[in-house]
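#struct-pred

JT: dropping the chains for the assembly here, can someone run the whole complex?
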Amino acid sequence: MATILTVDDSASMRQMVAFTLKGAGYEVAEAADGQEALQLCQGRRFNLVLTDVNMPRMDGISLIRALRALPTYRFTPILMLTTESAADKKAEGKAAGATGWIVKPFNPDQLLATIKKVLG
Amino acid sequence: MDLERFHQTFFEESFEGLERMETELLALEAAGEGAGAVDPETINTIFRAAHSIKGGAGTFGFKEVADFTHHVETLLDEMRAGRRPVTAEAVGLLLRCVDCLREMLASQQAGERPDTAQAESLRQALEALRGNAAQEAPSAVAPQAEAPAGGWRIRFRPLPHLLQTGNDPVRMFRALAELGELTVRCDEAALPAFGELDPEVCYLAWELELRGQVPRREVEEVFEWVEGDCELAIEPLGGRGEAAPETDAAPAGDATEAPALGQPRERTQSAPAGVSAQRRPRAQAGSIRVSIDKIDALINTVGELVITQSILGQIGRELEGVLGPQLEKLRNGLAQLERNTRELQEGIMGIRMLPISFAFSRFPRLVHDLGRQLGKQVRLEISGEQTELDKTVMEHIGDPLVHLVRNALDHGIEPPEEREAAGKDPVGTLRLSACHRGGNILIEVRDDGRGLDRERILAKARERGLVAPDAQLSDAEVYDLIFQPGFSTAAEVTDVSGRGVGMDVVRKNIREVGGTVEVASEPGRGSAFTIRLPLTLAIVDGQLVRVGSQIYVIPLVSIVESLQMQAGQVNVVAGRGEVYKLRDQYLPVVRLYEQFGIEAEHTELAGGMLVVVEGEGRRFGLLVDELLGQQQVVIKSLEANFRRVEGVSGATILGDGTVALILDVGGLHPAARQQAAA
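RK: done, full complex below.
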C-alpha cells in the first residue's frame, strides 16, 4: 500500500488526515513543519506528500521546492492544503512544483477522493 | 466519519495558538509603533496561529469561530504583506479579538453555542480599521452547468515539463473514464528518435472523446491542476460545425519555467526568512498528547510497585542467613529490581513535568492590562521559565501567583510620580523567576516598589488582637503576619487586590501541595515573595521517626537539625508555652504524642529527642522518641482515602507494610494550630 507523508503544524489537522488515510489502508507518516518533512523525505521515499502551506521553520512552498530538488522526489505527487481565499498561493505552489491542492476546509471523504485521484 | 475525536486536540492547540498570538502581540506593542521596527516573523507567527485556528474550526465544524477568525486573519495577512501598518490601535483590537476567540472556543468546548454578539462588534471594528475595504473578492467563476447530450472532445497537449509536477496523464484519463465512456487517441508526432529521447519529458499529446452526459465542470476539474502546464481544448461532441470552440489553448505557464533537463535545478535555497527568527523551542516535535488520567494511573501503579519492591527488599534482608548460597542471586535480583523501579518512577514522573512557562505565560498580559488600569508603568522580567515542575503542582500555584503579582502591582509598585519623587526609575520592575534548589522549585515574585510597611502591619495586627500589645517581633515575624486570615492593610479596598481575603488563601493553596511561602521586604526598595514547592506530589524524601508504637515521616526539606535536649535549656514562657533554648533562640516545642493523642515513651522534655523543623518562616521543635532511617516514600492522599487531618499531609506504606503518616510541618506550629482551632 502506498505511503503518505502528511505535513501540518496543527496537530488536530494532522491527526484527522492521518486517521482518515490509515482508515483507508494507507501507511501514514507525520511531520509538524517543512523542515521535519524534508528530513523524513531524505531518509525514505513516500508515494505522496500532503503539505499545509503556512508553517513555522519551513513553509509548504519552500518544502515543495526543496523536495523537487531531490532526485527521488522529482515526479512524486505533492498536494498542498490551501484555503479558498489563497488563489495566489496555488499559483505559487504550482510554480514551486506542486502537483495539486486540496481546499480547506475539507471532510474525510473529499480528502480520500482527492488522494485517489493521484494515487489511483 | 466522526470528527469529534479530534476536537480535544483542536481545542488544546487553539488555546495554545491564542496564547502565542497574545504573547507576540504584546511583544509588538512593547516594540513600539515604529513600523520599521516590526519583526516580520512576529506577524507571521501571529498569522499562522490565526490561520490554523481558522482551518481547524472550519474542518471540525465550528463555523462561528471559523468565520470570525477569517476576519482576524485577513487583517493579519494585510499586515504581513506590509499593506497595513502595525499600529497600537490594531494591536489593541487584535488582543480583544484573541479574548473573544478564547471565549468562543471555551463555549464550543463546553458544548454551547458561542456568543456571537461580541464577535460581530469586533468584526465591524476590524472592517472599520481596514477602511471598509473588506469586500471579499467573489469566488472565481460560477460553475458551468452545461452538459451536452453527446459528450466532450478534449484535446490535451501537455507541455514538456508536465510530468515533473507529479501529474500523470494516465491518472487523469482514468478519472475521465469514471465520468463516461472514454476513447483515447495518442498523438505521437512530437516523439523524437530514440537516441534523442529524454525520458523525463512529455512528448505525447492526446485527443479524447468522452461520451455521456457529463457536466463541463467535472471535465474541467480533472484538468484543474495542470492548467498552465498544457494546451487544453474542451468542446462538445457532435457540434462539429459550430464556430470556434472556446479554447483555453494559450498556456499561461511560460515555457521558461520548465527547467531544461539535464541542467540540475538549484539545490540550495536561501533559508526562508522564518527560520532564523524562531525563538522558542517548540515542544511539538515528535510529541503525542496523552490524557492526564492515564499518566496518573501509571504513577499510581508505579507507586504500588515501589512499595512492593521495598517489601520484597525487606523480606530479602530477613532471609539473610537462612538462604545460604541462593542469597547472592536474590540480592542481585532485588538490587536490579530497585534500580529499575527507580528509573521507571523517575521516567514517569518526568512525563508529568511541564516547564513553568505554562504558569508564567499569562503574566505579560495581566501586567500590561493591570498597569494600564492602575496608571502604573511596570516592566515585567521573567526568568527560568524552562524550569519544570509537576502539572498538578503548577495548577495549584496559578491562582496564588496571580494574587501575588496583582498585589505587587497594586500595593507594591508606586505610581510614576511617587517613584520619581523618591529618586527611582518611574518604570517599576516586577521580576518573576523560577529555579531548582535541592529537591524543590523556588519561585520568586519580586518588585522594586515601596516595600511592606512594618508599622502599619504591626498596628493592624495589634488592633485585630493577633499580637500581644507589648510583644517584640522581628521584621520577619511582622511581615509574616500578612498571611494571617482576614488581614489587610490596604488603605482602600480596590477591585484589583480585593479585600484582604488573599494572602492567607495564597499560603493555604501553596501549603496544600506541600509548599511554603515567605516574604522579605525592605522599605523603599521592594518586596520579594518566595514560594518553595516540591518537584512532585507523588514522592517525598522523608525522615522516619518513632513516637510510641507509631512511625511518622517528616519531609527532609523541613528539617533543620535533630538533637537531644539538655535539661537546663528547657523553659516555659508565658503566652508561648514550652520552649527550648537553642543558641540564643527560643524554639516552641510540640509534643507529637499529644498532638496525635497516643502513648509515648518520653514525656520528659529534658533528655528527649527534638527534631528542629522550619515551615513558613517559623522554626520550632518536635518531640519524638527515636530517629529511624531516611527514605523516599510514596505519598498517598489521606484526604482522598479518609479525610483531612490537621498536621498531616498524607500517608505512606513502609517496606514492612505498615502505614505511616507524613507530617505537615507548617500545620503543626502552635500558632497554626490555634488558628485551626479558632
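JT: nice. Helices of chain A lie at 11-23, 34-43, 60-68, 87-96, 108-119. Chain A touches chain B through 51 residues (CB under 8 Å).
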